[in-house]
Amino acid sequence: MLHFECDYLEGADQRVLQALVDANEQQYGSYGEDEPCSKARVLIREMTACPSAAVHFVVGGTQANLTVISAALRPWEGVLCADTAHIAVHETGAIEATGHKVLALPGRDGKISASQVEAAYNAHHQDITHEHIVKPAMVYISHPTEMGTLYTREELGALSEFCKAHDLLLFLDGARLGYGLAADPRVDLPFLARCCDAFTIGGTKAGLLFGEAIVLTNPKLAPCFRYAIKQRGGMLAKGWLLGIQFMALLKDGYYVRTCAKANAAAQAIKQAFLDKGVALLVDTPANQVFPILSRPQTASLGEKYGFSHWQQVDQEHTAVRFCVSATTREGAVEALLHDIAEWDD
Amino acid sequence: MLHFECDYLEGADQRVLQALVDANEQQYGSYGEDEPCSKARVLIREMTACPSAAVHFVVGGTQANLTVISAALRPWEGVLCADTAHIAVHETGAIEATGHKVLALPGRDGKISASQVEAAYNAHHQDITHEHIVKPAMVYISHPTEMGTLYTREELGALSEFCKAHDLLLFLDGARLGYGLAADPRVDLPFLARCCDAFTIGGTKAGLLFGEAIVLTNPKLAPCFRYAIKQRGGMLAKGWLLGIQFMALLKDGYYVRTCAKANAAAQAIKQAFLDKGVALLVDTPANQVFPILSRPQTASLGEKYGFSHWQQVDQEHTAVRFCVSATTREGAVEALLHDIAEWDD
Amino acid sequence: MLHFECDYLEGADQRVLQALVDANEQQYGSYGEDEPCSKARVLIREMTACPSAAVHFVVGGTQANLTVISAALRPWEGVLCADTAHIAVHETGAIEATGHKVLALPGRDGKISASQVEAAYNAHHQDITHEHIVKPAMVYISHPTEMGTLYTREELGALSEFCKAHDLLLFLDGARLGYGLAADPRVDLPFLARCCDAFTIGGTKAGLLFGEAIVLTNPKLAPCFRYAIKQRGGMLAKGWLLGIQFMALLKDGYYVRTCAKANAAAQAIKQAFLDKGVALLVDTPANQVFPILSRPQTASLGEKYGFSHWQQVDQEHTAVRFCVSATTREGAVEALLHDIAEWDD
Amino acid sequence: MLHFECDYLEGADQRVLQALVDANEQQYGSYGEDEPCSKARVLIREMTACPSAAVHFVVGGTQANLTVISAALRPWEGVLCADTAHIAVHETGAIEATGHKVLALPGRDGKISASQVEAAYNAHHQDITHEHIVKPAMVYISHPTEMGTLYTREELGALSEFCKAHDLLLFLDGARLGYGLAADPRVDLPFLARCCDAFTIGGTKAGLLFGEAIVLTNPKLAPCFRYAIKQRGGMLAKGWLLGIQFMALLKDGYYVRTCAKANAAAQAIKQAFLDKGVALLVDTPANQVFPILSRPQTASLGEKYGFSHWQQVDQEHTAVRFCVSATTREGAVEALLHDIAEWDD
Q: Tell me, what's the ipTM?
């Protein structure tokens, strides 16, 4: 069985693993106050062209989201996002568990627009009973989204502009950021750093054993953030494991390069489905593909390949998800491409 | 510089690291639903002689503590512990952040007694205004404690007996459990499983890159615990990393064996200090040593060795901490022993 | 200016006020442990035909909602409700502030149906990643709803049946319950007590200075509830003020009688609008009326009367709300009826 | 039976009750946005000589405390207080339920000193692991304290000076403030307004049916405070009840005058006990008295009078509490004085 259900099925990229092995017998400072983390912070500040950014490393994405959001908001403030956003549906109410309402807006292909945010903002502030309603104070977006889609530079710019003008924080969840950076170089790290108050650079889905870098570009978010990480259970004792891995992943452009390879494989899979007349739930430019398969197609592919059932489309068809990641083996992709091409339905 | 500040200074034990390397290119299920975790669960149920135990793996100790405690308690319930307990002082209020009061009792060498718990319990229940006071519903202890000391089998038995008779949950934080098991075989895993409603088996401080096993022996604590882990940000995407490591650490008695070696080294260091007439803040039988050093002693040792400043004892003396762990190199211990022996003050 | 914006514009019903004045110089026990509260509890148990019900009194509705919900749910559990529910939109995220997600379903005229609850329940439990999603554990409904509508006996029965069969708690917010009881005697207190696990009997909007009675019919919700009230800030020092008021309001059928009068006045206002060809946003049988007024109508009525702007319907029309309560003066209603009748547009 | 257990045994002062009766049939705006509250706000700004103060009214003291503290602190911040503080012991963990640790210091007669706060502050900031420890960010004191004692002007000045210099908020719980103002005119409202960032003026224990005024003198605490009140369940629908009562209580110096009378009565009771050779647990200048009674004394007084058992002193003696409030009847005090004087033991 070859698995494509998600982008965290294997261990680490070879380069990352080697760095961990090389560092294993060294002694390092604890809790992220160590040389590898310091170097990785410097590198991220360079890559984002944001010398004043505060950079922290945590193990997982839900941890990153709940720590950033709960540290940034006051108790009566909520966070606007798409109704498909990870924080809205797949974190078991982690944000609410810190006391904050997630204010979901109807997403389109996983995205929300500046005009939706504007409408929500105005609806709140023009309501004379607004003190009885959670105050929108942050906008959360994912890039790529949970639907595999990307924001354009213009869409991000518009969101950012509205947020900055209306005292809303813009937080971008970059759990799959490398695939986005590789798919659209116009949306690069310096641009994101200028647009957002905070964003994450995802490692877990791009070749790390684990790890998300939190980049706080808004200096108001920086004070006491390590207290927040510790309080929420996210401060890794051997924090240098994160620094070592991120250095190995990020230096010399490796992050985007390795993600680009995965994107190319995913796009080849997408094309193979299209060539067979299979429709897509949504057209996606990065490492996730969402073909709509018939029951027999699902059954036949399911014999050799693992993939996620995403959404029932009609009685006979289901949208499924195939992911390729930085650690997917080439042979697996080739086998899948071959088998799709061989279909005779 | 050779470091003894804490027991999480190096990476993984060689056997653990090799297991990770060997597994790296495999594909595994996500979020802890995988074969390595299943095997580790089976092994832990065997080792604890508790076939009905629910076993979960998380990355860190604060994560384990806050998840167990917040999942077990109702909103108005609090947790009794020593005033030196990790949850009381060194987790940035992680328990309070989930809504629960930590009810600290004056510890003796890091420990609390059944009679202290009884007094606190009675003080609550005999107060006619008890509905205005947080209800004690759980007892948290560490074994070994944060002071390096151990509960005896009798002390644990008495605590357990009182708790079971009075509907209090007993939760044991085993961040350094291996060193305790090695130092006193009368307090073994099956005994702990019978005494406690929940306890952790610490990996981070005993040769894992990271990892704490949560063992829920009370079946009332089991339902929906994975929801709790996810909500608090503790569900590792590549959860099999924990299963792989724990299997490597625990199987064939390796855990206790490797911790016993570290205990022996720590005890040798303790003896070396005693031989030089150095007093101890507290006598400790496991992997932590707390000598009280004079200023010149601190300065001279500090040139070559890292250790923690624990507590100012008087104007001229400071209690410091030396830790030995499963990953401390033998050469480092030998060098330290040699240098203490060479002291001529 | 005569005000109809809401149903809490005046002080207390004369009978209630007199009871307070009569009791003013007595000495009573504190925090709700007093004779007037005891008597009111007995009366409510009789009126609900639920001798085992636990009955508590708090000052306000948001307080009642957040206390009941946070006391009933485990951290990872959420509460299903209509998207117009008070807890979803008008309590500044009070439920989320206690850690729980509000799971809003699209309401129809403020109501949700058993089949909607069933669909939401199944969607959760059939999702293989359900541990990553907030678990629905309670259904919250309002009766009358925030839109002034009522559940029928059959609708409530169906909701209750599904909830009981699927381990969901049913909680009914009765902030305006008296008006509902008066409007539809088939949905009476004993029926509600059998259907619901918890419900409130609203006093603030029906002639009390303040006060909501919380009726916990499910014995699992009873233990330690006074701890919950105190912790959330809802335990009134002079708690007997609540007992006195509820006794005055509830005894001898006064509650329903006085609410029936207000309903009749509201229905007369509704009819007056209908007679003038004014459409309704929603047809309502109790004490709230939602006519859709043109701009000139709004302006002319607005000169003498206060009412709430509810919802923009189109460029030229706005739905507004008129409320009549147990303390609305008859003269005010007569004046309004007269002025609507005199309209010549 | 004549009751002296606490200072909230009767209803309202006659003047306050009359004001409520007079206002009963008026129509007022809801949720505290009404004329009586506006007037009371203006009056309080005048009385405190703090024209920029934000003033809010809530029903109870726990509500006031939890709302102020949770609105003022960031998640990782805690509040220093005496170990006898109401928030530390008698609010069922209300502060922790909002996520914040209460950092209790050993009080002396219910008070803490500037030097204790300084020591706690330094202990935190000088600890190199301070990010693992809750950050002290606020100091909570009660005046009068829960032990009936008062801070002197000098003590308050010193606390305030340290707090202002070290970015700590000073919050004074004035649940019994009127008795304090009456007992020591050197600590007046303008002085408190200059010393504190926030304080409350207690009404419940001084002749209101209910009500605490929250005075926010630090402008940083003002924004969005009404959101906080609503979210925590403290926004009274008929909020004008609070404005009416506070106006009646505060205008023309009535608050201090009526509290002074109660103080005098309490002091007479204290003197009566002293005259009989009864020792005091603590000497108190305001409306609470803490005699240490023998078993026979307790029994004989207990036949006719209610009082609180405060603390077991030895096998034979118990400290008890007698309170006099603004609504205690003169006859009751006289009877008690007479009966103590008649003692022949």
A: 0.97
- Chain B contact present for D6, CB below 8 A: no
- Put simply, the answer to whether A75 touches D231 (Cβ < 8 Å) is yes
Rounded-to-integer distance, Cα B345 and Cα B296, Å? 9
H/E stretch holding B336: helix B330-342
Select the residue of D76, D132, D227 nearest A228 (Cβ to Cβ). D76
Listed residue (D198, D183, D251) closest to D44, CA to CA: D251
D39 neighbors D247 (Cβ within 8 angstroms)? yes
Chains that touch D (3 or more CB pairs under 8 A): A, B, C
User: Which residues does chain B have within 8 Å of residue D133's beta carbon, measured at their own beta carbons?
Assistant: 89-90, 92
- B132 part of contact set with chain C, CB < 8 Å: yes
Collect all residues with Cβ–Cβ distance below 8 Å to B283 and sequence separation of at least 6: none
Query: pLDDT per residue over D179-224, tens digit each?
Result: 999 999 999 999 999 999 999 999 999 999 999 999 999 999 999 9
Identify which of B70, B98, B131 has the shortest CB distance to residue C227.
B131
Which domains does chain B show, CATH number per domain?
A: 2-7+255-342 (3.90.1150.10), 14-253 (3.40.640.10)
B307 phi/psi in degrees, rounded to 5:
-150, 165
Q: Which phi and psi angles does C11 have, rounded to 5°?
A: -80, -125
Q: How far apart are CA C87 and CA D292, in angstroms?
A: 50
Give me the tens of pLDDT residue by residue for chain B, a chain 345 residues long.
999 999 999 999 999 999 999 999 999 999 999 999 999 999 999 999 999 999 999 999 999 999 999 999 999 999 999 999 999 999 999 999 999 999 999 999 999 999 999 999 999 999 999 999 999 999 999 999 999 999 999 999 999 999 999 999 999 999 999 999 999 999 999 999 999 999 999 999 999 999 999 999 999 999 999 999 999 999 999 999 999 999 999 999 999 999 999 999 999 999 999 999 999 999 999 999 999 999 999 999 999 999 999 999 999 999 999 999 999 999 999 999 999 999 875
Residue C97 CA, chain-centre distance (Å), reads 21
**pLDDT confidence of residue B193:** 98
- D230 → chain A, closest CA residue: A132
Per-residue pLDDT, C345: 57
Q: Among all residues of chain A, which has the CA nearest to that of D133? A: A227
Reported pTM: 0.98
Q: Which residues of chain C have pLDDT under 50?
A: none
Question: Is some CB atom of chain B closer than 8 A to the CB atom of C226?
Answer: yes
CA distance A202 to A184: 16
Alpha-carbon separation of residue A274 from A264, A283, A300, D219 (angstroms) = 15, 11, 17, 62
All chains having 3 or more CB pairs closer than 8 angstroms to chain A:
B, C, D
Reading the block at residue D169, the tokens are 């908020």
CB contact under 8 A, B30 and A5: yes
| Gap from C90 CA to chain A (nearest CA, Å) | 5
CB contact under 8 A, B63 and A234: yes
Query: Under an 8 A CB cutoff, do B230 and C132 touch?
Result: yes
